[in-house]
């Protein structure tokens, strides 16, 4: 991996690594000062002010000497400075903050892992900035952060976010922006408050004395009037003076030469650059023109472009002369940004049409060196799609198209690919794009074509069999197999598994997973390790397909492997997805507490990494909504369902749709709207196979609706066929039998329920209540009371309330009698049950500020975060909280939020 | 929209190629680039291009259609 260093092995650093793609170390390195660098004390002194003001801005034209001034100053600090050279390629806030966090850690600033890390290029996790600011604000000495080339950052959101962090970090942060254009921060405010140090173009301009000194460093001694003339002509522009020196150096009569320059009317940079370029040997000229297509380069890469071997000494020489190139350390160089543009213009004139070829050569070299992201950029610039798609697939990086910081960037990059690009790799990339937008028809068509292409490459005649089958499972001939083919087949398997999941086809998912397992054994281990998202996505898809088929244990096995995988941004989406589905399994088995814990973990994962959609896959919130219904917390259930409405299209599979239908239908049932419940439950979820639990849950809702409508016979018939398999359905059927006046049959049904099923309280409590009701109706009050008490005990830990509300009026006397003896189950006591009526009205209205605090409380923000967000002190927030609690008649934050929801204050 | 951008100094042939969408004329120590500008984004793009080439923009104005 020439020159591209892994960002180190310490967990914090790799944690910040958003994609497993090595960060370019050069982005975090303070640029080196050339030997001819002139330190100007007046500027250094002014820059020292930066230690006292939160914000410093150094702006000036390209080549004004901004970067070198700040770099020289930063290198002289007695403590590390976090340096980040921004890049035009990354536009989104997520990317910038990921790099910024990395720059902080790379400079030795320790940050706790809880701060989190963005996993999506366009978003920053909601509380990340507040956590970062809070962390910085505790520092004794401020952390100095330099953002170089900040003019490349054009997203106004980023300016707002920087402003937020700067404001809340207080004296813990000193931000220095080096930029050609004024940033979108409210500079006037900082200026008015004396919180801004600014060094602008006029101040950066060289005075005649400084210019004389600079020329002296280049070995030029000029009389004062000549220097003066130069400063006038270049207006003290550093790059211009530097070029003057270079151009004049080799002239027999520098003074005369510079006089001519003064008289010339051509634009300064253009003229000087052409002059200096002309004086270079032809090899150097050729080299400079060719590297103008690259952002950064090192000798080997340049040799690949020039097809010579002399880049090393030429680059070193150019750097020594301080001409054109800047040294980034570790053998990496870049062109001075100003000269890059002009050189590119010269290249287009001198060698028209050479550019794509240069991009192609660079792409090939970069691919060999393992720099995937840059390979893809150069390959795309060359318009060589077969190569570019091939590089992505061969690197086992297909998962990048679905998840992580680069998915948007890559989607955009490959969107430029025309239909003429052919080959299995391009079809795989197209299929992945289609499937991630949930365009199944096109996705499958492209996937088939890729599979046919692969089959052909495997040397198999396209037989009558299933191309997927052949492409995935064809026997391996050990000799002559390209490793690239393994990657392509593995990518195929991933897409097959995804397609299987989206269409609810578990058999197909199993086949893909089996094939993938064999292929993984043949794949180079280091590549698979670099792409943990590939395996994670595959297992998540497999687990979801199994879950749809009702094979809960097998599904849990696959999903738990993903959920238990090590944390990291690249697998965040798969982990969140898997946790949400594990939560659903617990919910379906009747274990509300466990379901809630996993669903919360899923939601936390989303917030920690700022996953693309407001709720990642959204499954976590759906399960929380269903749990809330069983706890008879209907306001909360409704709010959660609304939040879960938006979800990642690539994860919107039948499981998700059925889960949403169940949660919605149960909420409607609880509110007594049976028609809406039936409508929600019976909405068809298209899938290849029927899911037993989805059918069971639908039947339960339908049955409950019939029961509510006084049709116990129909209610029973709906559930009867399913009651052998699913305990929940058996309990529902028993309840219907009881309602139909057949208590004996009801008890028989309950006795027949297999106990080894591991059903949780949501099922067992309902079963106990059916028995209790049967006992009550037969006049056996003692047994009935005992059963109700047992049900209350079992319901207690999970806060299960709904079954007691559902049970009907017969249970009232039992609960009333028991209430004083079971105080801990207060939520299931009659007083609470009666909350079906309107909640107690608010005695005193909340103030606007109190509502602000309450709203943030509902977002699970901490007191400190709320304070930071509202620009007030922690004590003020506490005061507001106290009066909120008083007005809502609660004494805990959770209760405050719940109560506020009941009162529709949120 | 038609615009003209006046920059300081004479632009070399090579540099004018960086603005293939615009015509240019050189006069009295200045170069005037002019032509159709598609939209605001294009306009700001042109300004950025001038800046990245180290050109000094003296004037920029919209021309009557």
Description:
The complex is a heterodimer of chains A (906) and B (65). Chain A is mostly helical and 906 residues long. Helix content of chain A is 60%, strand content 4%. Chain A has a five-stranded parallel beta sheet with strand order 2-3-4-1-5, sandwiched between helices. In chain A, helix 9 (208-217) crosses helix 10, helix 22 runs antiparallel to helix 23 (440-457) and helix 22 (424-436) runs parallel beside helix 25 (483-502). The model of chain A is unreliable at 1-23, 476-480 and 820-840 (pLDDT under 50). Chain B has a single domain, classed as 2-Layer Sandwich (Alpha-Beta Plaits). Chain B is built from two helices and four strands. Chain B has helices at residues 13-16, 40-52, and strands at residues 2-8, 23-27, 30-36, 57-63. Chain B has a four-stranded antiparallel beta sheet, with helices on one face. In chain B, strand 2 (23-27) and strand 3 form a beta hairpin. The mean pLDDT of chain B is 90. The chains are: A mainly alpha (906), B alpha+beta (65). The interface between A and B is medium-sized, with 24 and 20 residues.
Summarize the structure.
The complex is a heterodimer of chains A (906) and B (65). Chain A has 906 residues and is mainly alpha-helical. Chain B has a single domain (2-63), classed as Alpha-Beta Plaits (2-Layer Sandwich), CATH 3.30.70.
